Amino acid sequence: MTARPDASRNEAVIADLVRALGDKMVLAGAERPARNDSDWSTLGPQAPLAVVRPTTTEAVAAAMRICAAHGVPVVPQGGLTGLCGGARPLPGSVALSLERMTGIEAIDPASATMTVRAGTPLQVVQEAAEAAGFLVPLDLGARGSCAIGGNAATNAGGNRVIRYGMTREMILGLEVVLPGGDTITALNTMIKNNAGYDLKHLFIGSEGTLGIITRLVLRLFPKPACTMAALCALPDYESVVGLLTAARRGLGPMLSAFEVMWPDYWDVIAAMPGLRVPLAPGHAAYCLIEAQGTDETFDAPRFQAWLEAQAEAGLLSDAVLSRSVADVRAFWGVRDACSEFPHALGPHEPFDIGLPVAAMDAYVQACKAALAERLPGAFALFYGHVGDGNLHIVAGVKGAVPQPKDVIQEVVYGLVREFGGTVSAEHGIGLTKKPWLGHVRSEAEIALMRRLKAALDPDGVLNPGKVV
Q1: Which of 12, 37, 108, 385 has a Cα-to-Cα distance from 339 of 20 to 30 A?
Q2: Best CA proximity match to 99, nearest among 79, 116, 84
Q3: What is the pLDDT of residues 233-277, one digit of tens each?
Q4: pLDDT tens column, 297-334
Q5: What is the pTM of this model?
Q6: 169-213: pLDDT as tens digits
Q7: What is the 3-state secondary structure of the chain?
């Protein structure tokens, strides 16, 4: 039987990759790891032609040149913790995993920078900074698995955006391999550098569609001398907004996190075995406030005095103040209990949206009502980084297999458009949110995104079909 042209092409590209990189870097057939077939999205696995695992930027560039010459698409992969399908292989693609490109190359105390390879797990980056007396403030629940290059490619947000900004604000320089195999090495270590276009911003948040990030220069921040936290119960959402305003004014740059959980969320985590929930159910909202200071002698009493003033002002129904680092971790354990929702709730649809802070509770109530009307028996839990305008939603119908995904998305994203929000606050677009991008981006904006993609990747070989 005569081989089909695409089968011949596939064999040729794998042979060329093995010839250039060696069989240790190119895994195909039975040697191809199944873990590279998918990310953490709910799209299911898709086997690539091969998994390429380079150890150097030069090897990444060589792989891109070979795949581009054969017209074979390449899907970059980091820690595979993305929730939108951005790192999921496409049929007939090569998965290019950066999992072996790890390590801290340099820490410069004078410029307060770190140069790091893109496949390095975020937790390793955090620990290296801490050992040197600094802080990398980016923090996610997937810190042990996600890769710093993937964090940059998706412009990850996380828990402390209210103080430090998104990943974009933490990056000074990048090394990037372009779709044709050319490499841009712009490992800038200076905060002030206005020499022409700041090209790194093209690649940060582009989800691997414009280039493959191989090395990064990160800004380092002073390591906090103390961390204080409080879990608060509030009587209504108006009090939540009032508390956020008071925290910004009264705590100033000390304020590092402001997380809010609605009552349905609290009811679910309160029933989880082994989780200590220090506030009773039945309140309108629950808030986790974190502050980081430079001197515990002054900052801890200041935080306590500020919290007491909010109670006296009538903003709080109840509150628990941390007395130790263990307490702070325990409070975050309450907020991070959402990682157990797959076990506690069964199948469901997760969402990451952004909204004007003042409109969040109105959105929550409208969303709950619309889901109940469209899907009798539906559940919906709401929580998130409200200080940053970021709301997470977990919604579904108990026992439904499959979940009514299309209806849930129509409700959630339709209301996002109505309330002037965004369909993605921090997770990206990938494949799963691509159909909804037009809800929050104009035709002109999307057209410009496509022109940028065509300019940098005219043959469409790098992560095609994602984002736009």
Answers
A1: 37
A2: 79
A3: 999 999 999 999 999 999 999 999 999 999 999 999 999 988 889
A4: 999 999 999 999 999 999 999 999 999 999 999 999 99
A5: 0.94
A6: 999 999 999 999 999 999 999 999 999 999 999 999 999 999 999
A7: CCCCHHHHHHHHHHHHHHHHHCCCCEEEHHHCCHHHHCCCCCCCCCCCCEEECCCCHHHHHHHHHHHHHHCCCEEEECCCCCCCCCCCCCCCCEEEECCCCCCEEEEECCCCEEEEECCCEHHHHHHHHHHCCEECCCCCCCCCCCEHHHHHHCCCCCCCHHHHCCHHHHEEEEEEECCCCCEEEECCCCCCCCCCCCCHHHHCCCCCCCCEEEEEEEECEECCCEEEEEEEEECCHHHHHHHHHHHHHHHHHHEEEEEEECHHHHHHHHCCCCCCCCCCCCCCEEEEEEEEECCHHHHHHHHHHHHHHHHHCCCCCEEEECCCHHHHHHHHHHHHHHHHHHHHHCCCEEEEEECCHHHHHHHHHHHHHHHHHHCCCEEEEEEECHHHCEEEEEEEECCCCCCCHHHHHHHHHHHHHHCCCECCCCCCCCCCCHHHHHHCCCHHHHHHHHHHHHHHCCCCCECCCCCC
**Number of residues in the chain:** 468
